[in-house]
Every structure is written in C-alpha cells, then in structure tokens.
Design goal:
Blueprint lengths: L2 E5 L6 E5 L2 H15 L3 H4 L2 E9 L5 E7 L23 H22 L2 H41 L2 H68 L1 E3 L5 E3 H4 L12 H12 L2 E10 L11 E2 L7 H8 L19 E4 L3 E6 L17 H8 L7 E2 L8 E7 L2 H12 L4 E8 L6 E10 L9 E2 L5 E12 L4 E7 L6 H7 L25 E9 L6 E5 L5
Parallel strand pairs: 12-18
Antiparallel strand pairs: 1-2, 3-4, 3-7, 5-6, 7-8, 9-10, 10-12, 11-12, 13-17, 13-18, 14-15, 14-16, 16-17, 18-19
Helix pairs in contact: 3-5, 4-5, 7-8
C-alpha cells in the first residue's frame, strides 16, 4: 500500500495517510477526463486526488497538479498553488527567461556541427591507423622470417648487409607511423580546439544555470507558506533550513494537503498518478507515492493535527501469491499483472513478488528471483531459495538452456505461420525504461513466434524468446522491422489506454532442477 507518512513535529508520532481504493477510483475518473483532451497527453506530469470530509460531513474530491498546467499555476477546478509564489512572480519571470536563454545556448553547443565532423575524423583516422598497423605487422613477420633465413644461410659481409637492410625497413615503418600520426593531429587539431572551447563554455553555462535556479528556489522557499491540520504555518525555509531541491512545494500532494488544512477539512485518502508521455520510471496511469526528496520531508508537518486512521486500521493488500510449485531449492509463482518481480529503487515501488514472498516465508532470507517479468506481464516466475540453487539456475539462463513460452494478443491481424525475430536492442540512459532498436549499439535479441489465431482486428501469438533482453517481446512485436503489431495494453510501445492491461503472459518454463538430475516444467493458464 502506498502511504503518505512522516513524523509529527508536535507529538513525535508517526502519521500515515493511505492511498485508499476510494481515492484510486476518484483518480481513475480524473484519468478518464484527461484522456478526452489531447493537450494532457503531450505534457507529462504528476496529478493528485485528495478525498476530504468537510465540517458538515460531506465528502469532497480535491484535484491538484504538479508545477504548472499549460503554463499556469492557477486553473479553475484545481486547488491553487501554495501561497507565496506571487511575491516572487517578477523575479521568477526574469530568471526563467534567463534560464531559457542559457538552455538554448547549451543545446546549440551540444549540437555543434564540428562535433560530428570531429567524430567522423576520428573514425576515419582510426581506420587508417589500423590499416597501416596491420600492414606493418604483416611486414614485420616477413622481416623476422627473412632475418632467420639470412642468419641460417649467410655469413660475413653478406649477412651484415642483409640485416642492415632489414633494420632500415623497420625504421622506415616507424617513420611512416610517426608521419601519419602527425598528419592526423594536424587535420583534427582545429576541430578538437573548437570542441574543447564549446565544452568549456558549456561548463560555464551549466554552472550559471545551476546558480540562477538555486537563487530562485531560495527566494521561493523563503516565501512559500504551508499550513497543517493543527493550524500551524511555516515557510519551506523554516521547515528545512539546510536546503531543499528545486521544485519543492510545487508537487500535487503538498498543494492538496495545504489547501484541505486551510479549509479545515479532514483528509480521507490521497492518490497521485503520472499522466502524459512516459518519463524515467514514470508511466501514465500508474500510482506513485510522495517523491523522496521534495514531498516526503514535508509529510510529517503537513499531516500534523489530522484525524488519521491508525496503521492497524489501514487495509493492507493481500500478500499471498499463487504458488505453482515449491521445494527446498526453489519457488515458482504465478505472478499477477501489475506487480513488480523485485522491489524498485524508490520507496513507493517496494511491493513485489520477492518482498511478498519474504513476508510469506520469513525463513527464506536468501530468496532471489532468477529472472524477471515486466511489471505488467503475468505468468510463471522462478525464484531460488538459496545461493547454490540461484547459481545453478542462473547459469542455465545465461547458457540459454531454459525454454520459455509466452502468449500475447497483438493489435493487428497477422498471417498464420511461424518465424524468428532478430533485432538489436539498446536502452538509452536518457529514456529509461524504454528500449529501442539500434544497429550500432544494440545487443542481438532472438525470439521465435507462431501466430495461433487471427481476426479482423487482432491476433494471438505464441513467443519463445531465446535471449532475455529488457522488453524484448514488446519491442519485437511493436517495431516496424518486427511484427509491426504492438501488444494489446502496451502503454510504452503501443500508446494504449491505461485501463487495458498488457496482454502478455508467461505461459510455461522448462529447465533442469538445480540439485536433482531431472527436467522440470511449470505452466500457468492464460488469463485473457
């Protein structure tokens, strides 16, 4: 369960406001509204819904957004920003204009034509150098063989003359390499100088941008004033005088809680979700807890004075998972869609198959997932109960000895038949978790497929992945050079509405038992 929690500065008690099912339902209604307006599809941001009870007992739904919505902080139908921003409005406009100019110059310097010319020159020079090096290595071998022949067949003056000539040839090869190196340096030096000048300017501009941004945030933090349910008010600077990250106070959760407290309303449940293009680990339609650096430090103060449910009263999700098989070496789970295989990095992404099993089996401290299924993929998931089993099973995966079968429904009719998909996949660090086909940087991915059924609108496909790249089946299915048919419900590669689950299921897995000399097979019925 996602919780908005923190320590009350008055009592020292630990306060918790849950992301309740009712709040999630209200958030789903908001998602449906956002889906009807294409403007909201282009601007990725966090949105929030807070259920409150008024002084007369009426339940209301408050709606908030992070930052600005279509360039404005105050929008009808949404809670207003935290008071104080108007006091620094002029400074904000001026600083944002400066930051925009700095960013434009930074982008220009990052995309200098000389950078591409420099890279091409380096590639060409490397090729020339490798060709000359290979030629000289071949000539060196010939000289060595000839030297041995001369030493065996010649003597006296003839031997001296022959060896002298071979030394001269070796020295000439060295002079050729030095001449080529000098020519290369002469050709690339102007480009190298220009790129270095651009990098120096970039460092200055980025530092200047950071200083301006911090100055603006310091001004804002000094005037942003929060109110909690106990009636206390404080500026962001008062709450955390050691400093706060950029954007603190502009997130949806603090806006919603501050507004409810200022009206004297009682908070019942809070749900925040991402909407718009995926960004980092944020996917549209997914619920997330308070951000660790900006919102989490404020929760204790904001919730102070609220009449909250005790931890025992909070309805926890069912932790039990369907177990397909278990023994002293392994556990096989039928993973439901929407649940992570292992815990994520952030505090709101800890619920997973692994964490639930460790609660379900307290003695299984060494339990590890041998492989992963995407959060939205369901089906057979294999875990090892101790390091020796993990090592044996992992080795089978690494050596491609494990046979896996998946079923999926794709959003286009395909011709009945079989085939193999081979595409090089690469994860751009700036677009995680999205994968892309990249013929220069990508790693080969291989999957066999068989079209089981087809209709006018979609097809059912069986996949047998040979390699195990991230999002392998999803990319191979969606990409024009693959099946050119995204999997139904794939929000990352198919632009599907968030209400539809990913129709990808791990049907079966066959491997060798980690400690017994026998093959083992596990299967899970397809739920769609």
């Amino acid at each position: 369960m996602i919780l908005y929690e923190g320590q009350c500065p008055r009592s020292g008690a630990w306060l918790q406001l849950p992301c309740t099912p009712a709040a999630q339902v209200a958030a789903r209604h908001l998602m449906a509204e956002l889906a009807q307006n294409p403007v909201y599809q282009r601007e990725g941001k966090m949105y929030g819904v807070l259920l409150v009870q008024t002084r007369t007992g009426t339940t209301l739904t408050l709606r908030g957004f992070s930052g600005l919505l279509q360039g404005s902080g105050e929008v009808e139908g949404w809670v207003p920003p935290i008071p104080g921003r108007a006091q620094v409005a002029l400074a904000e406009v001026q600083t944002l204009s400066q930051l925009k100019d700095l960013t434009a110059e930074i982008v220009q310097l990052q995309n200098l034509p000389e950078r591409q010319d420099y890279a091409q020159q380096q590639a060409q020079q490397t090729a020339e150098w490798q060709a000359l090096k290979a030629l000289h290595q071949e000539e060196r071998q010939h000289r060595q063989q000839h030297r041995q022949y001369c030493q065996a067949t010649l003597n006296g003056t003839a031997l001296t003359a022959a060896l002298t000539e071979l030394d001269r040839q070796s020295q000439e090869a060295g002079r050729q390499r030095r001449r080529l190196k000098a020519l290369h340096q002469q050709a690339i030096a102007p480009l190298q100088t220009r790129c270095q000048q651009a990098d120096d300017r970039l460092s200055f501009l980025k530092q200047r941008r950071k200083v301006l941004s911090r100055q603006l945030q310091a001004q804002m933090h000094g005037v942003y004033r929060l109110q909690n349910f106990a009636g206390d008010s404080a500026t962001l600077q008062d709450l955390l005088p050691t400093g706060l990250p950029t954007g603190t106070g502009d997130c949806a959760a603090p806006k919603l809680l501050h507004y409810a407290a200022s009206q004297g309303w009682h908070p019942l449940g809070l749900a925040e979700f991402w909407w718009g293009p995926p960004q980092g680990d944020k996917w549209p339609g997914e619920f997330y807890g308070p951000c660790r650096d900006r919102c989490q430090p404020l929760m204790g103060f904001l919730l102070s004075g609220a009449n909250l449910a005790t931890p025992a009263e909070l309805s926890a999700p069912a932790l039990d998972l369907p177990i397909l098989c278990e023994d002293v070496d392994l556990i096989v789970v039928d993973k439901p869609a929407g649940l992570l295989s292992v815990p994520g990095r952030s505090s709101d992404r800890q619920d997973s198959v692994l964490s639930r099993l460790r609660c379900q089996y307290p003695e299984a401290e060494q339990l590890q997932a041998v492989h992963r299924l995407d959060q939205d993929t369901s089906g057979v998931l294999l875990l090892a109960r101790h390091p020796l089993a993990y090592q044996a099973l992992s080795q089978q995966f690494a050596q491609r000895q494990v046979v896996k079968h998946y079923e999926a429904i794709v959003t286009r009719p395909l011709t009945l038949g079989t085939g193999t998909l081979t595409l090089p996949l690469w994860g751009d660090p700036l677009e995680r978790p999205r994968q892309q086909v990249n013929w220069q940087r990508g790693k080969l991915s291989i999957s066999h497929y068989r079209v089981l059924q087809t209709s006018e609108e979609q097809s059912r496909v069986e996949f047998q992945p040979v390699t195990g790249r991230t999002h392998q089946l999803r990319v191979q299915s969606a990409h024009p050079q693959g099946l050119n048919a995204p999997i139904l419900g794939d929000r990352l590669y198919g632009n599907t509405a968030p209400q539809i689950r990913l129709h990808l299921h791990a049907v079966s897995l066959t491997c060798k038992h980690p400690t017994q000399d026998k093959a083992i097979y596990f299967s899970s019925p397809v739920p769609f």
